[in-house]
Design brief:
This protein is α+β, with helices and mostly antiparallel strands. It is 35% helix and 18% strand.
Length: 107
């Protein structure tokens, strides 16, 4: 018996961790591209040089930070611990490394 075909519309219902799994586990697969497209729709941005996903942190997420008064502005998805973490590096170098959305769109 064949499993049902995965439709790209289903990706919008997937949990964030599932999308990251698809992205990192299926390199050069069309599903990787569709997962990236869905992550961009959820306001995550891929940094081409660091090979990590970043998202601008919401104020509620920053409130839990213990960074000594200077709150980081971005969260990133740590593929080693499989969780979202606050980013404490240079914001300028991060923003310059994001892939433009048109490079992520499946054509």
């Amino acid at each position: 018996m064949q499993p049902p075909a995965l439709k790209t519309g289903h990706l919008s219902k997937f949990q964030l961790e599932t999308l990251f799994y698809i992205f990192y586990a299926l390199p050069k697969d069309v599903l990787q591209a569709y997962a990236a497209q869905e992550l961009y729709a959820r306001e995550w941005r891929y940094h081409g040089e660091l090979k990590l996903w970043f998202k601008r942190a919401a104020p509620a997420e920053l409130a839990n930070s213990s960074s000594g008064g200077v709150s980081p502005q971005y969260l990133y998805f740590d593929i080693n611990t499989w969780e979202r973490r606050l980013f404490n590096g240079s914001m300028i170098s991060i923003e310059n490394g994001f892939l433009p959305e048109d490079e992520v769109r499946v054509k």
